[in-house]
Every structure is written in structure tokens, then in C-alpha cells.
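Invent a record, attention on C-alpha cells:
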Amino acid sequence: MIFIIAAGLAAVLLSAHSASARFASECRNICLDTTNPNILITECTIDGSTTDTQYEWAQFDLNEILAYSPPTFVYKQDGDFSPSCNQCAIDDIAAFTCKCGPDTPLLDLNTYLADVAGSLCFANNAFGPICGTSTSLRC
């Protein structure tokens, strides 16, 4: 049963890759944790649709999928970008930016992140799926 769910999750995420995952259209209150700005926090719809009215708080560690490779961010499993960057910010449409040395890279997190039943999950053609967890953290 777990294998079927995981296979279905991978199929959903990989199919979302071609047209952008667009988690920001199904989630609200998007922010970064003030203590650990590599932690993305948001409220996502429980059924993963724009018509759902029930939300659940979710978190996702961006260090699991992002690396800083001057002058930009790259998707890399266990990339651990945060030691090289500070002053990170995200807006309500999931545009993510940080100050990394002399650079200020910008990345649209909608590209590979999706709301999957109230959790934020990542997948692209190189690796994934990697999913975050529910959380008590709030924006």
C-alpha cells in the first residue's frame, strides 16, 4: 500500500514538473522560519486543490533540494545552501531570494514544489520525491 502511494506521489510530482507545480496557488501564508530561514512554512490545502477550504500547516527544508553555485541557486539533493547565504526572503507567489556572497540569486519555487495532500513535496527529473512534514510553526 505504501509503495502504491509513493508511486502515485512521484507520478503527480513529475507530471507537475512540465507545467510548473504552482504550490503557491494552493497554499497561503507563505514564509520562512525566522530562526532557520532555510525552512519554508506555509498552509496548504488538505486535498491539494484550489477549491479546498481546509488547510494544514506544512514545512519544507530547502537545504534538502537547493545548493548555491555562484552566481545562482541550483537544484541538488542535500545541497545545503544556507551556510553560504543570508537575508533570505520569500513572497506570496513563491519567489525566493537570498544574499549569497556578492550575489542575490532569485528562484521561483513553484517550478518543482507541489501541495500534495497538505504537504509540500519536491520532484524533478534528477531526484525526488522529497516531502516536508506537518508543523506547529506559523507565519
Observations:
- The first strand starts at residue 27 and ends at 32.
